[in-house]
Specification:
The structure is a homodimer of 414-residue chains. Chain A has 414 residues and is α/β, with parallel strands linked by helices. Chain A is built from 14 helices and 17 strands. Chain A folds into three domains: 169 residues, 3-Layer(aba) Sandwich (Molybdenum Cofactor Biosythetic Enzyme, Chain A), CATH 3.40.980.10; 78 residues, Alpha-Beta Plaits, CATH 3.30.70.2860; 155 residues, CinA-like (Maf protein, Alpha-Beta Complex).
Amino acid sequence: MDAVIISVGMELVTGLTVDTNAAWLSSELAAVGVQAQRHVTIGDHGSALAEEVRRAAAENSWIVVTGGLGPTTDDISRQAVAEALGVELRVDPDALRQIRLFFETHGYRWSESNARQAAVPEGADLIPNKWGTAPGIHARIGQSEVFCLPGVPREMKAMFQAAVLPQIAPSQVGPVLMCRSLRCFGAGESTIGEQIADLMKPGGEVVVGTTAQEGMISIRLVARARTPALACGLLDARSAVIKDRLGGLVFGEEDVSLEAVVGRLLLGRASTVTTAESCTGGLLAKRLTDVPGSSGYFQRGFVTYANEAKVGVLGVEAQIIQDHGAVSAEAAAAMASGARRSAGAGYALSATGVAGPGGGSESKPVGLVYIALASSDGCEARDCRFGQHLPRAEIRDRACSVALDMLRRKLLEV
Amino acid sequence: MDAVIISVGMELVTGLTVDTNAAWLSSELAAVGVQAQRHVTIGDHGSALAEEVRRAAAENSWIVVTGGLGPTTDDISRQAVAEALGVELRVDPDALRQIRLFFETHGYRWSESNARQAAVPEGADLIPNKWGTAPGIHARIGQSEVFCLPGVPREMKAMFQAAVLPQIAPSQVGPVLMCRSLRCFGAGESTIGEQIADLMKPGGEVVVGTTAQEGMISIRLVARARTPALACGLLDARSAVIKDRLGGLVFGEEDVSLEAVVGRLLLGRASTVTTAESCTGGLLAKRLTDVPGSSGYFQRGFVTYANEAKVGVLGVEAQIIQDHGAVSAEAAAAMASGARRSAGAGYALSATGVAGPGGGSESKPVGLVYIALASSDGCEARDCRFGQHLPRAEIRDRACSVALDMLRRKLLEV
């Protein structure tokens, strides 16, 4: 049986909020061999939700609905599922007790509107929620089963793993579907696509595709086989061929980040890194410390946004900034060397550039960033031109990715 | 006419990538009075896309399709739209010239697979793409119109604004739909919902709803009226009532961030801020410098992850860390005071805590973060307990939000 994922919320369909639940649910379902055929997002309209539930039920699907279980009057999922089932809502005394208990144990203030969350369609089961106030709903409709979960990602995920997945996983009898993705950095999508074009032809046992996002290219592999072991074997074989062709461009698998790869390499070499940031303004240190355990190789970092800070904090010679400007290979190199010296670290990464949208000139346009890496071998600097059309956030993020990739390649010597 | 937004991509429906295009398109459409009824996400299956296009066309909609126009063989949108229209694909010589020109002017390497992007269904128009390689497609199907755009957000957005919106906006003759959102920080969703419960009743001229995300509560208002001026007037009046009731909880409108609000306040007072970060590891500086022009009030920041860095860089007395631990109100206060002194800034924010997932103890559990604000009035510190169930990224992000909100309230004296 395939799955249909329905996200409910005016904030989603009007675009105020980006839905991340559907993607997460798809990954979880794929891991147990259930393929999401469709994500649908609708507003807080009970009749639209009832229609989508009926359409998915006619396709004999697992149906996962998120959102619309909150305490306010715009939360319509309970009523809509009752409508799709053709039954009435009743207040469940167990649910009411659970919700009151949650409020008491967390010291939250009880308000009568929270009682609304204890209503359940006749004949449906409750899905307990230990992580928030709204219990979920589980009902059977024809050959299909529908699970309603809260929209808050943290609660939804915990409830899905605790109560929904154990019901879906054992009933899968069809072929197993397994996904893998290889993460690449350092070349464009069509360049990479061309090197593996023969593997991307449709119809094989493993479907291979590429996606570009913020300078990273993901190569996704989807294998179908009779057993998990067979599917895994297909993915292993195909991954090995791709990695062999692309060499140092592939930095990891699944959702591993460049910073996590760099962290593992530093730990393995018992070395440390520090940061000296101008245009990236702390993002490089933030990305390094996104990784749990990063205190093992990152002890301090410097955000030197102003020129006086580069001189005062990092010991960059004022003459260098005067001669070459703060946005220059010379300044980047002096920042990295100064930070490495000051922090007593094995490696130092620096970034200085024009992140925009203002501040660009003809010789130093928006998107120009100098990145340097200092190590015991000395200091190497490079310039990146990210294109003036890119937004500030993307220029900053790509500059950090280039810096992290420089360190990765240095550590791997590729 | 309403709209249906269809996102195409195996990476989306399998959950490898979160779709942000549909939300952005909905906001843009709402601004010209077109309401998105539904977002649908499907994989790289031509027949599924053709079916969704036909279903939306039967509802007389504007149909916007993103994705599936890339250079690789898994890109199926051109073929599927041709199927929905019942016509064949042809290679458009103009499109081929445009794509080749784009490659030449950007110095990209041409590969024959890129020629695939010049195919167009018979009778359909090309939508030029000056920002990337894949041109879009515009076709009429019954009373509906379908626009196919690339999936890369930057290209999609530029093309939508340049070529799609000008075709949709003038043909809207129905009532105008306008949205606004008020951003709140410092109380839970049900507390806020209760204070405005009477305004959230359905059926009024302005629909009011609430959403919680990462500790922020958004109150969204959707008004329908005959003219933009009338809709804007309704939103102004309703916003004023809500702001009056919620007071200092509301920090801004639309997608304004706490850091942007803090930045404007600092600029207005010609003051500056610095940062001393332990568990947030650069994220606070990153968020402050996310704002263009932040060099006007942020000159330097310190990431002092290790205890020696707190002592060496910020001048925190080693005795304080020995007596109270690095995760303590005393350490947070000493970090903020030290950073303010060292940077010569008007204000300093610090954060020290246990971001997890490891490193927690009974007395200092995961989620405990001390945040301090130093100013000419002295130093105030507070403890936050974000809950051990929250992921590392969310604990770090919320700690930064609390710090920024402390500074906002200090600057506003609320």
